[in-house]
Structures are given as C-alpha cells and as structure tokens.
Amino acid sequence: MIQKRGVSPVVATVLLVVMVIVLALIIFLWFRGLTKESITKFGGTNIELVCDDVSFSADYSFGTLTISNVGNVPIFGMNVKIVRSGSHETKEIKVLSTLWPATGLKQGGIFSSDLQFSGATEIVLIPILVGSSESGEKTHVCEERQGQELVL
Predict the structure, then answer these.
(1) Whole-angstrom distance, CA of residue 89 vs CA of residue 55
(2) How many of the other CB atoms lie within 10 Å of CB of 140?
(3) If I label 122, which of 67, 70, 115, 134 is the partner at 20 to 30 A Cα–Cα?
C-alpha cells in the first residue's frame, strides 16, 4: 500500500504569505527605481524650472571662448556640444580648460579661455547647475534648448 502525504495547511499558508511579501517587495523596489530623486534650488524650486531662468551670453572668436553670466543663477559648469559634419560630441568645459571657476560662474562673472574646436561647424553651450537633494548636493545638466548655439 502506497501512502501519499501532502504539505500541511500551516506550511502551505506560510509559504503563500512569504511569496506575497517577496512579490510585494519586488514591485515596490521596481516602482522606486522608476522615480528620480528631485533636485531643488533656491529654497525648494525644482532645478529643472530654474534652468529656464539661466541667462548668459557667449562669444567665440579667434580661438577664444568668452562666457558671461548675465542672470542671477550661478552656473556651476558648462557642457559644450561640438557639432562636426555628420557627428557631434559633448564635453564639459572643466575638461577642456582648467580656468573655469571652482565655485561656478556667479552673477556678473566672466569666463574666457583659448579653446580650439577643430573641424567644428557649431558649438552649443549647455549650462550645468548645482542643487540640493536628500543625498546632498547634485549637479544637473540643463536641456539643450536652454543652451546657446554659436555658429563657427
């Protein structure tokens, strides 16, 4: 005679509860990964909105790039999108020049440096800001539409 034994109802219930908890944890962590940590500036304003308030003027002539902060938002850094025929690359000005101020370009500040963009047809200057988040200070690169295009 063959005896078949199944799992006791208590063990089955415990296994079901553990499976539900594990699934809930997986879904929670998945949703948590979908949301970005918000970066704020000026007492709680989302840094993406502050990017619209950035105002600077730029000029490139005879191999010298000059950037003036004419707004009231400090510019921590600047990305340069270098456009060549059929391609482009983006670099941070701090990589191209050591003259960028360590504390950023404050209101009325001027940056000037000899930079060569060989073969480039245009450059786009995209501001980088620093804001506060739950994990400390973080940088935020503004969108390209908030930058300034210079035709070479």
Answers:
(1) 23
(2) 18
(3) 70
Cα 76–chain centre separation:
12
User: What is the pTM assigned to this prediction?
Assistant: 0.73
Whether 2 is in a domain gets the answer no
Q: 5 lies in a domain?
A: no
In a domain, 1, yes or no: no
Q: Which residues contact 148 (CB under 8 A, 6 or more apart)?
A: 56, 57, 58, 124, 125
| Residues 16, 7: Cα–Cα separation, whole Å | 12
Measured distance CA(92)–CA(61) in Å, rounded: 19
**Does 134 or 85 have the greater pLDDT score?**
85
How many angstroms separate the CA atoms of 126 and 114, rounded? Answer: 18
- Domain tally, the chain: 1
Domain membership of residue 83 as a residue range: 40-151
If you write DSSP's letter for every residue of 24-44 in order, what string do you get? HHHHHHHHHHHSPPP-EETTT
Q: For residue 96, what are its two tokens?
A: 């191209």
> Dihedral of CA 80/137/39/129: which sign?
negative
Inside any domain, residue 3 = no
